[in-house]
Amino acid sequence: LVESKALPEPIVLGAADTLKLLLTTTEGKKARRPHQAFLLLREPKSNLDTSFPLSVKESGKGKLELMLAKSRDRQSHKDLPIQFLTGSKILSASLVIASFGTSTPYRSPAFDLKIELDPSAPPPSVEKPLRYGRLPEIHHTFKADPKSPPKIISLIFTAAVLAALPALFFGVSAQVPALTPSLLTRFSTSGYPWEQT
After folding, report:
1. Tens-place pLDDT, residues 73-111
2. Per-residue pLDDT tens for 46-58?
3. Inter-residue long-range contacts of 106-111, CB under 8 Å, 24+ positions, other chains counted
């Protein structure tokens, strides 16, 4: 690459290719690390662009790798927008380098990037985005209200409960006289359980 001059021929990035960009940033004649350095790709027809930051060391040496990924179902790219793969196959690439202070920012076309997809693989597809809006009306079918059992069954169970109460009362009262002497004897000899001797 030559400063402020793009390459005359486009760089071809095929389905199995990797684009490696290596550069050294300088200020004057001294290598320095900029605050930001990235590769800007732009699709000419739609003017859609995206940027890829370079990994730059303190020595000013920067590195960037781009690769097309081919899966079993379709071709894709983990970084490139789908529009770059379905639109025009030639993208313009520019380098953008800038820092704080008095440094002069740099932005210049670097090269054109030609995307070549595998013709034997299915073309990239765009998933329909989720849209929020009015949905069709939902008609609920509720269960019928619970019904009471027939009155005759309710009366029979009520009579059975009422008949059991006197039997329970007489059974307990018949046992009280037999239990009373043993309880009185126990408390008279040992005192109440909550009393301490």
Report:
1. 444 455 677 777 776 678 888 989 888 888 888 888 888
2. 888 888 888 888 8
3. 107/40, 108/3, 108/4, 108/5, 108/6, 109/6, 110/1, 110/6, 110/7, 110/39, 111/1, 111/6, 111/7, 111/10, 111/11
The answer to whether residues 54 and 38 touch, using CB atoms and an 8 Å cutoff, is yes
> What are the residues whose beta carbons fall under 8 Å from the beta carbon of 53, sequence distance 6 or more?
36, 37, 38, 64
Q: Rounded mean pLDDT of 125-152?
A: 83
Q: How far apart are CA 154 and CA 147, in angstroms?
A: 13
Centroid of chain to Cα 189: 76
Distances in Å between the Cα of 19 and the Cα atoms of 22, 67, 113 are: 10, 6, 10
State the burial class of residue 178 (Cβ atoms within 10 Å of its Cβ: 0-12, 13-18, 19+): exposed
Tell me the whole-structure pTM to 2 decimals. Answer: 0.56
CB of 25 closer than 8 Å to CB of 70:
no
Question: Furthest-apart CA pair in the chain: how many Å?
Answer: 119
Torsion sign, CA atoms 145, 150, 156, 162: positive
* Inter-residue contact 183 to 177 (CB < 8 Å): no
* Whole-angstrom distance, CA of residue 42 vs CA of residue 91: 6
Which tokens sit at 145? Answer: 């209200």
Residues counted in the chain: 197
